[in-house]
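pls ignore typos typing on phone
acetoacetyl-coenzyme A + seq
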Amino acid sequence: MHFQLTEEHKMIVQAARDFARQQCLPGVIERDEHQKFPREQVIQLAELGFMGLMVDPAYGGAGMDTISYVLAMEEISKIDASVSVCMSVNNSLVCWGLEAYGNEDQKQKYLVPLAQGRKDGDLYIGAFLLSEPEAGSDATSQRTTAEDKGDHYLLNGTKNWITNGGSASVYLVMAQTDPSKGSKGITTFIVEKNWPGVTVGAKENKMGIRASDTHSILFNDVKVPKENIIGEVGFGFTFAMKTLAGGRIGIAAQALGIASGAYELALEYSKQRKAFGKEIMNHQAIQFKLADMATKVEAARLLCLKSAWEKDNGIDYTLSSSMAKVYASEAAMWISTEAVQVHGGYGYVKEYHVERLMRDAKITQIYEGTSEVQRIVIGRQILK
Ligand code: CAA
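k done
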């Protein structure tokens, strides 16, 4: 066992760090305040190959490993978690799902442009539509239906809190095709946003990751051709669970980035700010906070990298990805809150960035499975 990054991994870290500092930092406060989708930044991410980072180059991807993905997600999330969630959903939930379970035609038609993040010169990204107004954690209780009409399915229902909802061109939609079969009656469909009957609801006015593009999506008698089913009829819930296991590595890495970003800001501030005649880093009350922050960041990073390593080596990562996500997201919430505390009054205003990181941290305990859902998954895995 060794804990050193390869030269290639170090280059990924540097590329992601440069991108985050040069392209994301300018304007991050304004984009957050005005909920402005970071379109230019996502286009640049696509140019770096980061929108299909793990996809096989034969399908337009960069062919990198999951460790690289974690490293890049951490660096970008230190600065702008609204950019990184867009990258995470496109990589983990959309591209991975299509690459693992889509057929050759679906890969050529959808995966290639999604992995490149571009089609005909325009931004081309995807979204993952599982959550509904009454089916969040209880994901088997889908109300969206898809009725077999011979050569196509007719899709009806509403999906909620969809990341990339307004900017995506392609949706992977989970819907009930046979309610009598419970989780085995759910099917995944590839749906294009511009098809008749698809409506994008208003953008959600959120606490954090405010620049990310979160909408409800409504389907009213949308005709979906049968060739757009992923896998087979009834495979949708397994598809969602398998895909989310990898998604949880991405969100864990996002939480890790928020945590390490907040820690680094607190560390830097504590070296400069003086109180009671000395830099506040020399007060034990602050040192203890910094020590706990550094320890939690390191633990979160190791959990993320272990899960990524398992995924890259064909080992079941259901348990490790949930452990990484629950730990990293709770560390991010705690560290960012303490980073605000270290900054005192300055931490409570936007210019110092830590209040945004604190607001951004909260969602990592909620999306792609709440902390409570992660504990269900962990509990079932360790008790089986
Ligand atoms: N792999 C394969 N199969 C799985 C599985 C997995 N990881 N997990 C469950 N299954 C199977 C089960 O074996 C079971 O099959 P059988 O009936 O044959 O036994 C079937 O699926 C149903 O599973 P459960 O009985 O365990 O289902 P449950 O109702 O108890 O729910 C749950 C389990 C873990 C709570 C699950 O519903 C869950 O993960 N919920 C959270 C959903 C979620 O993460 N939503 C996030 C939305 S996406 C998002 O946030 C994206 C974004 O925009 C950022």
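Residues 236-272 form the longest helix (37 residues). The mean pLDDT is 97. more later
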